[in-house]
Amino acid sequence: MIKQSSGFKQFINGMQAALPTILGFISIGGAFGIIASSEGFSVWQVFLLSAVLYAGSAQFIIISMLLFHAALADIVFMVCLVNFRMFLQSLHVAQYFEPQPMLSKLLMGSMITDESFGIFSLELMAKKPMSMNWMHGLNIASWVAWWGASTGFALLGKNIQNPEKYGLDFALTAMFAGLWLLTTVSFFKNPNESRLKIIIGITVTTALFYLTETVFSAVIGVLVAAVFGSLFLTYLNKETVHVS
Amino acid sequence: MSADAQNFYTILILSTLVTLAIRIIPFLLVKFMRFPDWLTTFLHYLPLTMMTALFVQNIFDKKTGHLLPLINFENLLAILPALVVGYLKNSLMAVVIVGIVCMAALRLLH
């Protein structure tokens, strides 16, 4: 009985730890809802993407690629590629919670995001003990905020007529520009990274995209530029070992 | 629209299965798996190059009748102030909002 109530308390503590994530999810999830609905996706489709797939940037990629009329296999491959970093994050969390029951671990693993992984890493570095219930509280609160915000804002977005007139269709382009900006800034702020190598990597990736788009298409260009750009950066940093 | 809708559900289901596999397999493999260093480094840089490629996709337009993709100056003009404000505010939302406002202003002036 005592164990149960303390488990519940840990769950609540986990939900509280999710607060910064929830604020971020309301704004980004809200942006997703508005963008997807202004691009012609229904509120129900927005809800399904957010609640079932639950994978931030992959959701933006899916709506963008559907609008570019990409092939089904290309979209799924791209989703696989962009989400593959979760494999490492899951691996890290899995090692920490290794002795716990498998079903509970699978529920937790299926809800891992960049943000909940970030909070997990911060707590780990602060050497705070974390329980499964704490992680569940963190994950479930974030998940509800994500689909709640995207569905709510999709409903609002549906009531805006002629979204092009207000530049709303540009939100997706701006979103990726913003994700690129913040990712680059976080690499720049990391003292283990060489800024010159990051700039060279971005330049090479852009050039690879341009050349591949010239010969093939934008969709293939994104895949080729992302994979070979990252392989190039891996080669440039082959002495540095990154532990995530 | 029904073909589109069917396409949507197929993509939703396949993407969800692929993503679930990526999230869950480590919990099954964790006992006997070790990543080679180069793969760890590759995955570390992947978000950067992925976002770069997705961003520049909207800056270059492939037009029929032209050998090389052209720069989309309308998008470029709208995105530059958005990036500056986003950098100063360190906010994704700021980039999106300023971008939308700039694009609306550009279209109004046209």
Automatic annotation (TrEMBL), chain A:
Q: Which domain of life is it from?
A: Bacteria
What is the membrane topology noted in the UniProt record heading this document?
Multi-pass membrane protein
Q: Which residues cross the membrane?
A: 12-36, 138-156, 168-188, 218-236
Q: Could you give a single Gene Ontology term from the biological process aspect?
A: L-valine transmembrane transport
Q: Kindly give the InterPro entries that the UniProt entry links to this protein.
A: Brnchd-chn_aa_trnsp_permease
The main location class comes to membrane
State where the protein is found.
Cell membrane
Which Pfam families does its entry note?
A: AzlC
Lipid biosynthesis found in the keyword field:
no
Give the record's GO CC terms: plasma membrane
UniProt keyword terms in alphabetical order: Cell membrane, Membrane, Transmembrane, Transmembrane helix, Transport
Q: Which family does it belong to?
A: Belongs to the AzlC family.
Q: Which PANTHER family match?
A: INNER MEMBRANE PROTEIN YGAZ (PTHR34979)
The protein's name in its UniProt record: AzlC family ABC transporter permease
Originating organism? Leuconostoc holzapfelii
Lineage, uppermost ranks: Bacteria, Bacillati, Bacillota, Bacilli, Lactobacillales
From TrEMBL, chain B:
Determine the domain of life of the protein's source.
Bacteria
Keywords of the record: Membrane, Transmembrane, Transmembrane helix
Name recorded for this polypeptide: AzlD domain-containing protein
Q: Which residues cross the membrane?
A: 7-30, 42-60, 67-85, 91-109
